[in-house]
Design a protein that fits this description.
This protein has three helices and no strands. With about 80 residues, it is mainly α. It starts with a helix and ends with a helix. This is Pyrroline-5-carboxylate reductase.
Length: about 80
C-alpha cells in the first residue's frame, strides 16, 4: 500500500506543479491537499511532502543558478 500511495502522490504532485506553472496559481496544491484530506489523510500527507520537496528543490536550484551566473560574470569582469 505504501508504494501505491507514494506513486500516486508523486504523480499528482508533478501534475499539480505543472498546473501551478501554467496558471500562476501558487496555492493550488493547498486546494488539492484539502480535497485529499477529505478522503485520505495518508495520501494528503504524501502529496504535500512531494510538493514541498519539489518546491524546495526549485528554490534551491534558482539560488544555485543565480550564484553560478554571478560567479561567471565576476570571472569575465576579471579577465
Amino acid at each position: 500500500m505504501a508504494g501505491t500511495i507514494e506513486t500516486l502522490a508523486a504523480k499528482l504532485a508533478e501534475d499539480t506543479l505543472k498546473a501551478m506553472d501554467a496558471t500562476g496559481d501558487e496555492r493550488l496544491y493547498m486546494e488539492i491537499g484539502t480535497q485529499l484530506a477529505a478522503s485520505s489523510q495518508s495520501l494528503e500527507e504524501a502529496f504535500l511532502t512531494e510538493v514541498r520537496v519539489r518546491l524546495a528543490e526549485r528554490g534551491a536550484r534558482r539560488v544555485l543558478m543565480r550564484r553560478v551566473a554571478e560567479l561567471k560574470a565576476k570571472a569575465q569582469d576579471s579577465a
